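Input record (one chain):
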Amino acid sequence: MKSETRVREDLGRRIRERRKKLGMTQAQLCGDYMTRNMLSRIETGNANPSLETLLFISQKLKMPPSFFLCRDSKEEAEYSKITKIKEARRMLGMSQYKKCTDICSELPSDDDEVSFIIATARIMWAVSVFDKGELSEALSHLDAATTALHQTVYMYSEMQSQIKLIRSMIASLSKGAVLSAEELPRLAPLFFEKDRFLYITALATDGFPAEIITHGTVYRSHLDAKALMSESRYKEAIPLLEGVYKEAGDSYTRYFALLDLEIACKEAEDYRSAYEYAALRMELNTKYSI
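The corresponding structure, as predicted from the sequence alone:
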């Protein structure tokens, strides 16, 4: 059993380490509640805080009082893990993928929950940079997600399906051709909105009912434009395609809208615009070549 002195020293050390980790000075922690001298005595193990003081310190340092009263290093590590996982999930919810993975890097790599959070963050990060047209960076995040996924049993098939879909979309952009029906995943992707996945499916599948995609979205507008093009109504399709190209928030939709713009303008005998869109497409072909 720990001596009273050792208990005070461990409590003080945890308070000091937590305060410094948060970048907080003694004065900032004390506020108007207690003196710096008193806090210094607590942190060095020369004084025991009252229950009220411990509750105050815990609130300021954003840790439960029980953390500072841990019996051993194992219990302390478990509390630290719980706190870091909670913060990692918070960063993930805020789309702060780097901060999320940095926090997870401080935790055991063989932990199922940690690996699942890393895999999720890396996939979402991959989607984010893919939508900006950064294909090589997206692939590196997918590689990291795959590594993490092999260390967890959570939602393995669903996550693998998402990784496969993004890899296929990257390959299709690199080739300048839409996905084939055979490349579509059997499981609905976790990190794409429903309309976006239906749109990807529609581009890959003949006879897909575009009506089930929400009216007014860029995805529906692109499919409506393609329907007009199939009826040789190219001049009517062009404004829709221009809207899609300008408003779409992802590289996949913008690229294939641009491809159709080039075709529609050429068929409408607007050769100047067709040339301009062809030049833009060729720039993207170079960028997406991986």
